[in-house]
Amino acid sequence: MRNPLLMKSLTVAGLALLLLIPLALVQGLVEGRNARQIQATNDIARLNAGRQQLTGPLLVARYEEQVVTEAKNKTTGEAVSRVSWVGKYQVLVPKTLEVTAQARVDTRNRGLFKAHAYDLDTQAKGRFSIPRGLGLDPSRTIRPGRATLLLGLTDLRGLRERPVLHWAGRAMDWQPGGQEGILDAAVHVDLGALSDLEGRDWDFEMPLALRGSQAFSVAPVAEFTRVTLTSPWPSPSFQGRFSARHNLSPQGFTATWEVFHLARSLGKILEGKGDSEECFGVAFLEPVNVYLQTERATKYGFLFVGLVFAAFFFVEVLRRLPIHPLQYLLVGLSLAIFFLLLLSLSEHIPFGWAYLASCLASLGLLGIYLVHVLRSARQGLGFTGGLALIFALLYGLLLYEDSALLMGSAVLFLGLAAVMIGTRKVDWYALSQSGGPAAIPGDGK
Prior knowledge:
Elements: H1 4-18, H2 20-47, E1 52-72, E2 79-92, E3 96-110, E4 113-130, E5 142-153, E6 164-167, E7 170-173, E8 175-176, E9 186-193, E10 200-213, E11 215-219, E12 224-231, E13 236-240, E14 245-249, E15 252-260, H3 266-270, E16 280-284, H4 290-299, H5 301-318, H6 325-346, H7 351-373, H8 377-399, H9 404-422, H10 428-433
Parallel strand pairs: 1-11, 3-12
Antiparallel strand pairs: 1-2, 1-5, 3-4, 4-10, 5-9, 6-7, 6-10, 8-9, 11-16, 12-15, 13-16, 14-15
Helix pairs in contact: 1-5, 1-6, 2-4, 2-6, 4-6, 5-6, 6-7, 7-8, 8-9
């Protein structure tokens, strides 16, 4: 071929594209392990208790309303009034609800995979105001029935102790079962005759000891809801569309939510849409998800290989030092195996230490190899030092996710600037005509 430099450029580019295959295989392995992690988390939740959402309490006031219907006597044609009583209910919400909770989080293992569960000690108190006649139009004729208090919980298996309701100085046990159309997964207490409760305010308290996994949330049903949650967990993720005042520290967090009834939709909560739209809470996330971190690292893998191959190519061309395509391929494969080492080690030791160990192993191998490939200890170790900077850059991209684009753009710009400045006096036509590197087979000389 008349232009061996172009041929070598295409060969190097082809090898770089070829290395997308092992990088894709590593990324597929990462995704598979992450899927198994999610499955393990779901299995632990299924065997214990899953995400918990607290909804309520809600007071269901049952009554019968007199309904008068007009009908015609088929024989005489006269209008006849018929009186019947129709069973109905009305849902009353607390005037105030204050919840104070402390969460203790522990890690449970299923093989190599981990899931986070929590024990929650909750103290809730508030007040109901039950108007006489339920505040209905006085022209309506009603007969009061029974009053029931409902408390919704997503997973009733998470009750660690028998729950007790303190209502107006009386202690009453919660019973299993909710009411279809209001709260299905719930516990309830029969408060007695509605006629005995009308026209008064009633204070209540309800301690709860809950167990759950992954996340805890509250649906703010009261006219004014205040929830304070404390935990030693260092990396909470606050969720829902209601913001929290929170204080974060390495020793844990404290978060407080305050929600007025004007800001939430009780209808959506009762329709069962509170999980996605009308709740707030916290997810207990792993500080460093090794699979997501490794997946992000492999996404930079091609850029990683491209920078190393480009540096190799310019060393070969400018120093007229022949480097065989197989040597390019071996160096590229060692970089691909770095990501495999990172994945396997991070499942056993913290991610930072896994990254450091993988870097030292890869740099040690490449340093020994490059000293002989470049035929100079100084150049081989210098090139290895440059690779160490690239590894450090990659770790910075993983560590500072919000600044990853800025850092990556800056490095690419600096790398291009270094190449342009370093080759500004190179006569590429003359270099091509002279055969490029010192000894490229088949250059036609």
